[in-house]
Amino acid sequence: MIAMLLVSLSARRVAVTGAGGQTGQHAFRKLLANKDFAPIGIVRSEQSRAALIESGVPSEAVVVADVTDAAQFAAAIVGCEALIIGTSAKPAPSGATDPTTGRPIFTYPKGTPEIVDWLGQKAQIDAAKACGPNTHVIICSSMGGTDPSNMLNALGREKLPDGTTKGGNILLWKRKAEKYLIDSGLPYTIVHPGGLLNEPGGKREIVIGVDDERTVGERSIPREDVAEVLVQALLIPAYRGRSFDIRSKLEGEGAVTTDFKALLDSLGGRNCDYSLGEIA
């Protein structure tokens, strides 16, 4: 009993936002399975919380908080030593099509990139800073940020009668939040995954790089492998102060990645260059 108590007291309290989603939930469950961590999963609704509890997650490990409500979110993560940001605006077809191109028109029914990926992430970073100057913040972002013309930026963008546009630009807003974190003075890790796959992790060689380079490997990576990198960033001190991209080779190509320090070491001292592309 005493040994169990000592373990629980020494476990690191880590908040994970987007814990009811896909990649965030993988990271949350990995932390739940590791006795060195005492994770708190932050979800958006009581429905998401109930689903996690029904799946076996302890009720005390799940909290409902709106990341765009700065005061509510700050209260939810009091006492945390680290934060994994797994939230993101999610586009969905509106049901209409563009009369010029015939392509479906997308909207962001649960919050625009400006609200979720910028203001929501800013609120999370500010709340982490309130927890203490050594609070480690890890952002799960996206590749493509060096290219303002990336197709992801066009989703949800609306052309106004005067020729200007509004909305969309998800990668530009993400990049703004990333730069805000870097400038905050907090320990940080920023991970840019390629296209996310709903396939089992631990079966591929992960390819690491910077600035959207794609000379080796595929454009994509399983979500579970991304989650493993997010967790390893908490375990390996060298991941602090780093911003990088991750993709993978096809299953069966190369050697499955198991040494995550060596993975980062292979990058040398390179970090993503925020003078490239645009920031909203």
UniProtKB/TrEMBL annotation:
Coiled coil: none
Entries under Gene3D superfamilies matching the protein: NAD(P)-binding Rossmann-like Domain
Residue intervals of the NAD(P)-binding domain: 18-234
Keywords: Signal
Single annotated GO MF: oxidoreductase activity
Pfam family membership, one: NAD_binding_10
UniProt cross-references to InterPro entries, sorted A to Z: NAD(P)-bd_dom, NAD(P)-bd_dom_sf, SARED1-like
Extent of the signal sequence: 1-18
Protein name: NAD(P)-binding domain-containing protein
